[in-house]
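Recap for those who missed Tuesday's class. We walked through two folding examples back to back. For each one, the amino acid string is listed first and its predicted structure tokens come directly after. Nothing is annotated here on purpose, so try labeling regions yourself before you check the end of the notes.
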Amino acid sequence: ITVTPPTLIGDATVTIRYSASSEGPFTEENPAYKDVKDNEEPYTVYFTLSSDNYNTYTNAATVTITRRPVTLTSASATKTFDNTPLMAASDPTVTAGSWADGEGDVTFTMTGSQTVVGSSENTFDLTWSGTTKESNYNLTKTFGTLTVSAPANTVVFKAKSGTWTYDGAEHTLAEVDYNASELVSGATVEPVFSGTSRITAPG
């Protein structure tokens, strides 16, 4: 805080003393505060003005530190489906606000991932360390988008047919013909059948 003493008669001087408590002790060191207090409540600084032949004057002032706004945004990425996860591993960047001078010591863990065709948010977590304290910042996270598009090639599937003479047993068709080389590496096919079965009576 800044305290401006009054002008006194003659050569009288004023001594200013400070304390973080109304009960003292009071010293000539002016308290300094850096961190945001709980719920952004103000710090109270008590001070006295004293001089020979004058009554001591006591009062108080407040110091309020508010959270610093900063927005972190993760990258977006796209690719064609290849049966592997799409992840944008680059660290998020500051897109609004700023870190205080000499701060920004955080570690990012990228958690966003997209494997199948579609899109999702490129989410991330962060760990605060050093002098960079979460309680001093009003953090906003903005997520980029991870997008996987369908491959351009076409795969043709053809169900196999079958005919049986009645024998009292159940018969099913569970095979399809396709060119496996047209599938993306690692992809598998699980056919689901519906249609008409034909069974020929004996004789």
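Example two. Treat it independently of the first, because the proteins are unrelated.
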Amino acid sequence: ATSAWPLTCQNHGLLASPILLQIATIMNLRDVVVVIPALNEEMAAIDQSIFKAINSNRKLATMSCRGVRGATTVANNCREEILSGTRELLALLVRRNEIDPTDIAMTLFSVTSDIDAEFPALAARQLGWLEVPMLCGHEMRVPGSLPLCIRVMISWNTEKTQDEIHHIYIRGAKKLRPDLSKLPPVDWEELEKWINQQLAGGN
């Protein structure tokens, strides 16, 4: 049988459980009738404990996996330039979006075919992303495309909506997405200090 929202219990001396009401709210169940035995004090206490546990983890039920894009360029196919440029890009993405690396599902890097001196994923490892699955690959060779470019796609579990995500394109990569290249003023010296702090273990 079904009834209109909110979740109800048939009125035959039976009691609706608060935890079931909470689960229904989180899962957006609209057409459900729950019938359970009347709860004694012991069952009510257990029910309340579960209620608190779910309420403390409510964040998980409202998360979506969002894609966060970014790109930058380097002047040369040089290991240190690849790593420093990637660290700079990731630092801006993390700070602008308030990304906690523990919420990252995976990260994909692509580079143009003229970059092969180092894997850009190493820069993320250097920043402490030790548990994040990553993959690097080469971008398609399209005639006239931007050279010496590093791109990243971060799959991030977050409560933010799609239009709250900030994608970042810097250096020569600004021309790829001029509409996404208008950053607030960046204190590059302060950003470099933050990056160095992460390299030192975040202390």
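Answers for example two:
Residues 1-15, 30-38 have pLDDT under 50 and may be disordered.
The chain is about 35% helix and 15% strand.
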